[in-house]
Amino acid sequence: MSSLAADIVGLIGSTLMVIAYAYSNIAKAMNFVLFNLLNLVGSALLIASLAVHFNLASMALEIVWAFIALLGLIKALGKRRAA
Fold first, then answer.
1. Which of 14, 35, 36, 38 is the most exposed place for a label (fewest CB within 10 A)?
2. Which residue positions in the chain have pLDDT lower than 50?
């Protein structure tokens, strides 16, 4: 991936995560599938960007963020099926 492409991918990932954060603060009723999916995809895109522009602290943060979002997504989907 080129440096420019990595920057664009990273910006898209950051945008998705900011949208998720804003959504969590303005939603009257949270859709946890949407919230966690936005965070998971956003962090995955940032991880891809960091593969080109490596930063250990940021990579560690994004891996943990993705893991938490994945667990939240699994939990949200499980509750949705149970209902």
1. 14
2. none
